[in-house]
Design a protein that fits this description.
heterodimer; A: alpha/beta; six-stranded mixed sheet; globular; B: mainly beta; five-stranded mixed sheet
Chain lengths: 306, 681
C-alpha cells in the first residue's frame, strides 16, 4: 500500500466518522478494566495493558471491584477472581476474565446469565508445561508429591496424566484437616522426590511456607514453587506468568475483539518465566540447567518454538 | 442505614474473601509475598564446594547408627579416634590424641563453642542435648582456624540441633537395656505463625563398663593385678537435662533464635585401688543460654549477631585419709557478629568479629597434701581472660569450573598471643560430577589454662589450675596443613566418592615434660600424612551404604624426647619406637548399611574397625589391640490412627562380643542391647 493510498483511506475513515455518531464508530471500542484490588499486580497489569494500545480502544479503570454496578462498555476486562465474580454476576456484556485460575472458570460461567461472549486468560500454567519443567529440571527424580486441600478442586487426574506422559508418577494426598498439615506433609515428603506447590492458600501461605520449606529441605526434597517469591524464599524453581505476560495476552485478545467482535476460547498464558534458585540447587546436590536452558527444553518438548 | 450497609458489605467481603482463601485458588496464591526461608545461613555448603574435607552425619545416619551417646557418632567420620577414659568420659580426636582431653578440636553446637576453658576439652556427658535433639553434624577434617578460630587445629565438629519448628506435637520415648541403660525423654513442639518452639526434658543413665573380674586380652593375671585392672572401677552415669529452642520470626526479614538448657550430671569416677582418687561422684551442673538475631538484607545479604553464655559448676568430695573436696566453676560469654555479603553473582564475602570472655574459679582442700608432701592443704586459683578475633572469608566462583575460597583470621588469644591464620583452597570442577580440591592453611592452638598453669600435686579428678603460671613461655602450637581432595559422583552406579590426601605438620607441639619440671612445654614436632576415603552407594531407593576408610602415618621427635628423658612412656607398639606414631591408629574403617523393609520395618547394621595402637600417655597394659565391632538396629513403626504414631526399636552393639578395650584397658566393650519405644502424638 503506497503512502497515497494510506492518506486516502484515512480521509475516507475521517469522513465516515463525521457522519456516524462517535459511539458507534466501527473500530472504536470502550473497554472497562475492573480490578480486584488496586495494588501491585493489578496496577502492573493495567500499565502493561495500556501500552501500545491502538488509539481507538478507550480504557476506563475501575480500581475497586465492589464499585462495579453494571456500567456500560463494549468489553469488560476483569483482573483477578474477585472482579471476575462481581462482573459475571451483574453484567451480560462481553467479558474477558484475566488472571484467574483455570479451575475457577467453570463457576464463573455458571454465574453468567449468558455464557455468550465470555472468555478468560488463565493465571496458572497448563499441567503439561508444569510437568515438562519438572522433567527438564530434574530428569532423575520421578516421584512427584502434592499436598492439597480437598476443596481446591485441582484436577489431580489431569496432572497425573501429564506426569505419566513424562515418565513420572504422582503422589497426591488430600489434606486431612487444618491441624494435620505437617504430619500430612511428612507423609508426602517421605514418599516423594520432589514437592510440587499448588495454589492452595490453606497450605501455601506466608505463615506455613517457612516450615514447609524447612521440612522439605531437611529431607533433601526440592519444592517447586508458583512464583518468583517462592524461588526467593527457597523453592528450587518455578514456572509462572507475570501480570505483564497476562496483560499482553489480554491486550491482543482485546485488539482482536475490536476487529471481530468475537472472543476466542479461554486460554492458558502464552508467555511465562522460569526462575531457578541455583544456591538451593547446589545445597541439595542437584545440577539444574539455567532458566534459559530449561525454557528451550520445555519449548522443544511442547513442540512450539517461540 | 448507611452504616448497616457498610457492615453488610464488609461482612460480604469477609465471607467472600475467606471463601476464596479456603475453597478456591485465586491470584493471591501466585502473587503473595513470602519470607526468605532458605537464606545463606540456612543453606549448608555442598561438599564439592567446601574449602575443607568435610563429613556430614545427617539425621538418617544418626538414626541408623543406633547410638545413644553423641561422641559415638564420630566413629562414622574417617580417621576419627573415639575412646573412653570412663563409661561417661568420652573423647573425640582426629589424628589420635596425646591424652584423654583431646584439646585440638573445635566443637560447636549451633555455632556456640562448647569446649570449656580450663582444659580446652568437651565434657560430652555435660552437654544439655541428647542424640535425638541433633539434626545434623558437620565435621571438618583438617584445620579450619580461618573460619572457626582457636582450637580448630585438627578439625571442627559443628552440631546443628533440630529446628525450633521440627515437630508440632508431643512425644515420649523410653529406652531400657543392659548395662543399666535407662533413658527417658519427653518432647513438646509447637509451630506458630510467628513463633516456633520445642523443648526436651530427658533423663539418661547407664552403669558404664562392667567391673572386670577377668583380665582382657589374655594378659597374665599377675600383671593386671599390678596394673590395677580388676574389680576397681565404677563409672555409672546419670544425666538430667532440659533444652529449649524457640524461633521467633515476627516479619519476613528478622529471625530470633532463643535457646537455653541445663544438664545435671552425676558420674562415678575414680578407682577403688587409688589412694588419691578413690571412687566417688563427680557432679556437674551445666547451663547455657543463646540469643541469635539474623536480619535479611537486600540482595541476599545477611547480618547476624549471636550472644551465648555457658556456665559449668563441677564439684567432687572424696576421702584421702580425711575428707577432701574440689570445685571448679567456669563460664564463657561470647558475642559474634557477622555480615554475609554477595559482592557479585559469583563472589560472596563473609566477615565479622567476635569477643569471648572465659572465667574460671577453682578451689580444693585435701589434708593429705600436707601429710604426704608438706604442701598447703587448701588451694585455689581464678582466671579471667578475654580473646578477640576478626575474620573474613571469600568464596569466588571464578568460572563455573573454578571456585576459590580464601580466608583469614586474626586473633588475640587469652594469653595475649597474636596469631594470623590464613587459608586458601581451590576447587576445580573437572566436570560437574568430578571435583578436585587443593588447599593449604595455617592454624594455631592456644595452650589450655590447665597446661600453662599446671598443678602437679592434686587428688580427685577435677583440675584446679595453679595460681601462678607454671609454663611462662608456653607458645601456641602451630600447624601447617596441605591437602588434595577429590569428590566424584557416579550417577550410573548411584555412588559418590570422597577422597583426601593430607600432610599436616605440627611445630611447637605442647607436651607434658617428665623431667623434674613436670610442666607443659613446647618442643614436639610431628607430621601426620595419610589418605581418607568415603564411599556412599545406593543399591536402590531403600538400601544405602556408607563406607569410610582412613590410613594414616604419623612420625615425630618423640624417640629423641624419650631418650632425653622428657617423655615417660615407651611405645609398646611393636612396629614403632615413636609413641606418637604408635598412638595414631594406622588404619580405621567404618561402614553403615541401612534398609527400609516392607511393613514399616527398617534395618541397619554398622561395622567399625580400628587397627592396634598404643595410647600416648598410657603404659603397655593399655595397649589397644585391633578393634572390630558390629552393631545392628531393627525398628518397626506403628500408625495407631488418630494422629498417634509409635516406633519400637532394638539396638544390639558389638553383636559378636569381640570384647575390645578402650583407651584405658579396664574399659572392655562387650555386647549390649537396648530397646526404645517412642510415641508421638
Amino acid at each position: 500500500m503506497s503512502a497515497g493510498h494510506k492518506i486516502a483511506r484515512c480521509l475516507l475513515q475521517l469522513m465516515l466518522c463525521w457522519f456516524v455518531p462517535a459511539g458507534y464508530a466501527a473500530e472504536d471500542l470502550r473497554v472497562l478494566l475492573v480490578l480486584s484490588d488496586n495494588n501491585a499486580p493489578y496496577q502492573t497489569f493495567v500499565n502493561t495493558f495500556r501500552q501500545n494500545l491502538p488509539v481507538h480502544i478507550h480504557t476506563t479503570i475501575l480500581p475497586v471491584a465492589e464499585d462495579f454496578d453494571a456500567q456500560q462498555a463494549d468489553l469488560i476486562v476483569t483482573v483477578g477472581v474477585k472482579a471476575a465474580d462481581r462482573v459475571a454476576a451483574r453484567s451480560t456484556l462481553p467479558m474477558l476474565a484475566a488472571m484467574i485460575p483455570s479451575n475457577t472458570y467453570v463457576d464463573l460461567l455458571a454465574k453468567r446469565r449468558s455464557a455468550r461472549l465470555t472468555s478468560a486468560i488463565y493465571l496458572d500454567q497448563p499441567w503439561a508445561r508444569q510437568a515438562a519443567l519438572l522433567h527438564a529440571a530434574m530428569p532423575e527424580r520421578h516421584r512427584i508429591g502434592v499436598l492439597y486441600s480437598p476443596g481446591t478442586r485441582l484436577d489431580m487426574s489431569a496432572l497425573r496424566a501429564a506426569l505419566v506422559e513424562q515418565g513420572d508418577t504422582l503422589l497426591a494426598k488430600p489434606l486431612h484437616n487444618a491441624g494435620s498439615l505437617f504430619s500430612d506433609m511428612e507423609e508426602v515428603l517421605v514418599a516423594s522426590e520432589v514437592l510440587l506447590a499448588v495454589p492452595d492458600s490453606a497450605i501455601y501461605n506466608s505463615n506455613n511456607i517457612r516450615n514447609i520449606l524447612l521440612s522439605s529441605y531437611r529431607r533433601g526434597i526440592p519444592l517447586i514453587g508458583l512464583s518468583q517469591a517462592y524461588v526467593k524464599a527457597g523453592a528450587l524453581c518455578a514456572i509462572f506468568s507475570t501480570p505483564e505476560h497476562l496483560a499482553e495476552q489480554a491486550r491482543s485478545v482485546t485488539v482482536t475483539f475490536a476487529q471481530t467482535r468475537t472472543l476466542s476460547a479461554a486460554q492458558f498464558p502464552k508467555h511465562y518465566t522460569i526462575a531457578v534458585n541455583q544456591e538451593v540447587a547446589r545445597t541439595l546436590g542437584l545440577t539444574i540447567p539455567s532458566a534459559e536452558a530449561l525454557r528451550i527444553q520445555i519449548e522443544k518438548s511442547s513442540g512450539s518454538l517461540r | 442505614m448507611i452504616k448497616k450497609q457498610h457492615t453488610a458489605i464488609a461482612l460480604l467481603y469477609l465471607v467472600s474473601h475467606t471463601c476464596y482463601a479456603a475453597d478456591f485458588s485465586s491470584e493471591t496464591d501466585y502473587y503473595q509475598e513470602l519470607p526468605v526461608v532458605l537464606s545463606a545461613s540456612r543453606l549448608s555448603q555442598p561438599l564439592s564446594e567446601a574449602p575443607n574435607a568435610m563429613t556430614v552425619i545427617d539425621r538418617k545416619m544418626i538414626t541408623a547408627s543406633g547410638f545413644r551417646s553423641i561422641p559415638d557418632l564420630f566413629k562414622l567420620v574417617p580417621g576419627m579416634y573415639v575412646s573412653y577414659y570412663k563409661g561417661s568420659q568420652a573423647f573425640v580426636a582426629y589424628h589420635g590424641s596425646t591424652d584423654q582431653y583431646a584439646r585440638r578440636m573445635q566443637v560447636m553446637i549451633d555455632g556456640r563453642s562448647v569446649y570449656m576453658p580450663l582444659t580446652s576439652t568437651v565434657d560430652w556427658a555435660d552437654l544439655p542435648i541428647t542424640v535425638d535433639d541433633i539434626e545434623r553434624i558437620e565435621v571438618i577434617r583438617g584445620p579450619a582456624a580461618a573460619s572457626h578460630g582457636a582450637n580448630s587445629t585438627q578439625g571442627v565438629i559443628s552440631i546443628t540441633t533440630r529446628d525450633a519448628g521440627w515437630m508440632d506435637g508431643k512425644s515420649i520415648s523410653v529406652t531400657r537395656g543392659s548395662k543399666g541403660i535407662n533413658d527417658v525423654a519427653a518432647r513438646i513442639g509447637r509451630r506458630g505463625d510467628t513463633l516456633d518452639y520445642r523443648m526436651t526434658l530427658a533423663y539418661s543413665a547407664d552403669n558404664g563398663y562392667d567391673n572386670l573380674s577377668t583380665p582382657p586380652k589374655n594378659i597374665p593375671i599377675t600383671q593386671p593385678k599390678a596394673a590395677g585392672l580388676l574389680n576397681n572401677s565404677f563409672d555409672s552415669n546419670q544425666a538430667r537435662l532440659l533444652n529449649y529452642r524457640a524461633d521467633y520470626h515476627p516479619n519476613a526479614v528478622d529471625r530470633y533464635d532463643i535457646q537455653f538448657g541445663l544438664n545435671r550430671n552425676v558420674q562415678a569416677v575414680g578407682w577403688t585401688d587409688s589412694v588419691g582418687n578413690p571412687v566417688h561422684d563427680l557432679i556437674a551442673n551445666t547451663s547455657f543460654m543463646q540469643l541469635g538475631w539474623i536480619r535479611l538484607l537486600d540482595n541476599n545479604a545477611e547480618f547476624s549477631l549471636r550472644y551465648s553464655h555457658i556456665g559449668q559448676d563441677q564439684h567432687e568430695a572424696f576421702t584421702v585419709f580425711s575428707l577432701a573436696n574440689q570445685s571448679v566453676k567456669s563460664s564463657r560469654d561470647e558475642i559474634e557478629l557477622q555480615h554475609t555479603l554477595p559482592l557479585s553473582e559469583s563472589n560472596r564475602l563473609v566477615y565479622g568479629a567476635a569477643w569471648r570472655n572465659d572465667q574460671v574459679a577453682a578451689q580444693g582442700y585435701a589434708q593429705a597434701l600436707f601429710l604426704l608432701y608438706k604442701a598447703s592443704p587448701a588451694y585455689s586459683s581464678s582466671s579471667n581472660t578475654n580473646e578477640y578475633r576478626v575474620f573474613a572469608h571469600d568464596e569466588w566462583r571464578i568460572t563455573p569450573q573454578f571456585l576459590l575460597n580464601t580466608g583469614g583470621m586474626f586473633e588475640r588469644d587469652a594469653l595475649g598471643h597474636q596469631n594470623v591464620s590464613p587459608r586458601v583452597a581451590l576447587n576445580f570442577h573437572v566436570t560437574p560430577q568430578h571435583t578436585l580440591r587443593m588447599g593449604t592453611s595455617i592454624a594455631y592452638r592456644t595452650p589450655a589454662l590447665a597446661e600453662s598453669s599446671f598443678r602437679a600435686l592434686q587428688p580427685g579428678v577435677l583440675f584446679v589450675p595453679n595460681a601462678t603460671v607454671t609454663s611462662p613461655g608456653l607458645m601456641p602450637e602451630r600447624l601447617i596443613s596441605r591437602e588434595i581432595g577429590y569428590l566424584g559422583e557416579f550417577h550410573e552406579w548411584n555412588s559418590t566418592l570422597d577422597l583426601r590426601l593430607f600432610s599436616d605438620q605440627v611445630s611447637n607441639g605442647i607436651f607434658h615434660d617428665q623431667t623434674f619440671k613436670k610442666s607443659f612445654v613446647n618442643g614436639m614436632s610431628s607430621v601426620y600424612q595419610g589418605v581418607e576415603a568415603t564411599v556412599k552407594h545406593s543399591f536402590d531407593e531403600d538400601r544405602h551404604v556408607t563406607v569410610n576408610f582412613a590410613h594414616e602415618l604419623a612420625r615425630s621427635n618423640a624417640p629423641s624426647l624419650l631418650s632425653a628423658g622428657y617423655l615417660k612412656f615407651v611405645s609398646s607398639a611393636p612396629w614403632t619406637n615413636d609413641i606418637l606414631s604408635g598412638s595414631t591408629p594406622r588404619d580405621s574403617a567404618s561402614a553403615l548399611y541401612s534398609q527400609r523393609l516392607s511393613g514399616d520395618v527398617s534395618f541397619s547394621a554398622a561395622y567399625y574397625y580400628q587397627a592396634a595402637m598404643q595410647p600416648f600417655d598410657r603404659g603397655p597394659i593399655d595397649f589397644q589391640p585391633t578393634q572390630r565391632r558390629m552393631d545392628a538396629r531393627v525398628a518397626k513403626a506403628f500408625n495407631q490412627g488418630g494422629g498417634v504414631k509409635a516406633e519400637l526399636a532394638l539396638v544390639l552393639q558389638n553383636l559378636f562380643d569381640t570384647r575390645y578395650t578402650e583407651y584405658v584397658a579396664n574399659n572392655v566393650f562387650n555386647r549390649r542391647g537396648y530397646v526404645t519405644l517412642t510415641l508421638n502424638w
